[in-house]
Amino acid sequence: PPNNWQEDHQTDTNVAIENLPGFYAEGYDVQIARVIAKQLGLTPVVVKLEWSGLIQALNEGQIDVIIAGMADTAERRQSINFSDPYSKVTYGVLVKKSSSYAGATSIADFAGASLLGQKDTLYDTVIDQIAGVNHLPAVDSVPAMIARLDQDTADGLVIDGETAQGYLNTYPDFTFVSFAEGKGFSLGFVGSCVGIRMDDTKLLDAVNAALATIPQDQRDQMKATAIANQPT
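The structure corresponding to this sequence follows.
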């Protein structure tokens, strides 16, 4: 959340999860998928897979696109194509308000801190950009990260600002530390993009054309709605 989550009841905006009967997918990614499908004259079909297996599933033809908050990193571009970004991303650190790191203005201020990320994501790998950091073993999900911070077994969590905002609404004792340009993490990408097989060039063009129909104010509203409705 707010990119994607599952629900056990049907609504006017969620989409049934094909391989998980009785459950439905919701979130910002899902709404982007619905717009793309509508523009292409298709019906969106959602499949629940492990994050670490998404690119393999795409290239093996189990799925047609990845719309899951995936960043277009140079490493991933060696395996698949990416659309234009549908969401820009900035990274920061989620800490408790009482933490000595709450006033940090640079990632260098986290030297000595015990920081945690999500397995197989940039939330985890960018931690090594901080000299002297205690890089904790990654966990499988953002909720698992949140639990570690809440239990005081981590000083901070590396996360993007939009995802952090939803958790700030639930955990009033948390705060998000953001950084000015040149003081934060070097990401090497712009934001979340749709992942597409290398040889599906016509689909790539069609997806980019569909994304071009979504103005920024509509994207902002879709993201705000996802943040407001995400599970707590």
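The longest strand covers residues 91-96.
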